[in-house]
Every structure is written in C-alpha cells, then in structure tokens.
Amino acid sequence: MSLHLHTNTQPSSQGKVYLVGGGPGEADLLTVKAMRLLQATEVLVYDHLVSDDVLRFVHPQAQRIFAGKRRNEHTMRQEKINQLLVDLAKQGKQVVRLKGGDPFIFGRGGEEMQALVAASIAFEVVPGITAANAVSCYAGIPLTHRDYSQSCIFVTGHLKDGTANLDWPSLVKPFQTVVIYMGLSGAKSICEQLIAHGAPANRPIAVVQEATLPTQKVLVSTLEKLDADLNAQPLQSPSLMVIGDVANLAPSLAWFNPYPK
Ligand SMILES: C[S@@+](CC[C@H](N)C(=O)[O-])C[C@H]1O[C@@H](n2cnc3c(N)ncnc32)[C@H](O)[C@@H]1O
Asked: Where are the domains of the chain?
C-alpha cells in the first residue's frame, strides 16, 4: 500500500491491519484517512453494515472478503475472522478491516485487535461516525440538550446469549438520553421493561432506520405506543432507538428528510 500516512511501526516484511470505521452509510461521512486507506488497500475484509456508497472507494484491484455478520447469521465466525486477519498480515498483506460506524462501538473491533496483539501483528485503528451520532444529527435529535438531557448512555439491545438483560434502573432516570443499538427486534420487551422499572409510559422514543441513507425513516412515539406504531409502520434493520425527551425534537429539527417519511 503506498500510503503517506503517519505510522508508528517500522517497515517490515509482515503486513499490517487497518481497522477502519466506515461510518453510518453516507460516503461523505468517511474520514479522509479512511477514504485514503480504502483507495490504497490490497485486501478488504468488510461487514454487511458497510454501505455500497462507501465500497465505491475501494481500490478496484483489491481482494474483497465479505465477513458478513447479521444478527443470528454470522457468515464467518468471529474466531475465523480474527485468524483471517492474522494470516493475511503474516502473508505480508496490507489489510483494511472495514466496519460500519465506529469499530470500537458494538463492533467487536476490540476482540479483533486483541487477536492481532497476541500474534504481534502491526495495526492502526481509524475512528468512524457511530450510528448514535449519525441518527442524532440526521434525524434532528440532539443527544444532549440543556433543557432535556444532561447525559447519554449507549447500550446494546442484543446480548451474546440473545437476551437483553440490561441495567433497567439506570436506564429509566429522567434528564438523560438512552441510545439502544440492535434493539429493534426486542423493542416491545425493552419498552415494557422500562415502564415496569418506573419510566413514564409517555416517555418519548424515536426509532431511526438507515440513518444518513436516502432510505432513512424516522418514527417518534412513546414507550407505551411504540409497539402499535411499529406494527402500523414497520421499520427494518439497521435501526437505532433513542429514548428521552430529546426525541420529541425530531419533527421540528428534521432537515435531512421531512418528518414523518
Ligand atoms: C453491530 S452494531 C454496529 C454499530 C457500529 N459499530 C456503529 O458504531 O454504529 C449494529 C447496530 O448499529 C445500529 N446502526 C448501524 N448503522 C445504522 C444506521 N445507519 N442507522 C440506524 N442504525 C444503525 C443499529 O442499531 C444496528 O443494529
């Protein structure tokens, strides 16, 4: 890879892995560093969340390896992906490991880099715009706001064992924003649990599908009504949920697509 990027490692016959955040979908949201790496890479290992818009920048001769990863449908097991990155680097390849959003936010980037450290492989990590930032900015939902929210929590709605066994009491406090990744399929039970743990039934919740893409959709509802609203207007993955009073700002702050769409 003929990159003119700063690196901390000495040149060697061994390759290197660049763990790169591909952002939420719209290619203009890539960092300059991510784009330069994509344009120069020999091998690309990518996940299903990486948009076609972003893949347009990959060097035309680069070998592309799809690592998959949809919920309950892991095209390649995590251990196999870890080993693949190690093997490619040992073959002397310059590899871009491209992930949707930011690689260290619910992206298993940490696990992959730990495998590289264990195998003494050189690597760099390039941050990407995570779904929470994308949803917030493109759907008009400020994650913090002096009138409504003083803190923000990111949680996953989908655990390794398939449950969403969250710390509910910490998620129902007022004046905070709770962002739930991978929560769409468990939305009904998440809302029920929040109400059961003391959240007001009329607390606003927004669900945003495919933020930053032309297919972006935004639904603003309440904890008690979300299930019915999702039945009336089904949304698809990837979708992010934002819970808290800031969600009510979406209709007035929407700029990317008119609300509702
Ligand atoms: C495995 S996590 C990966 C998160 C990613 N590393 C990030 O930083 O955004 C996948 C979840 O991220 C959320 N997500 C990713 N891209 C999204 C988008 N463009 N719009 C809405 N939600 C998105 C969804 O909740 C999806 O189920």
From this structure: 16-126, 131-253
CATH 3.40.1010.10 fits 16-126, yes or no: yes
**CA 222–ligand 1 middle distance (angstroms):** 21
First and final C-alpha spacing in the chain: 43
Give the tens place of pLDDT for each residue, 121-156. 999 999 999 999 999 999 999 999 999 999 999 999
Q: Which helix (H) or strand (E) holds 21?
A: strand 16-21
The fold of 131-253 is 3.30.950
Cβ neighbours of residue 119 under 8 Å, at least 6 residues apart? Answer: 86, 89, 90
100 CA distance to ligand 1 centroid (A)?
A: 7
| pLDDT digits 0-9 by tens, 20-34 | 999 999 999 999 999
> Nearest residue CA, atom 27 of ligand 1?
182
State the pLDDT at residue 72. 55
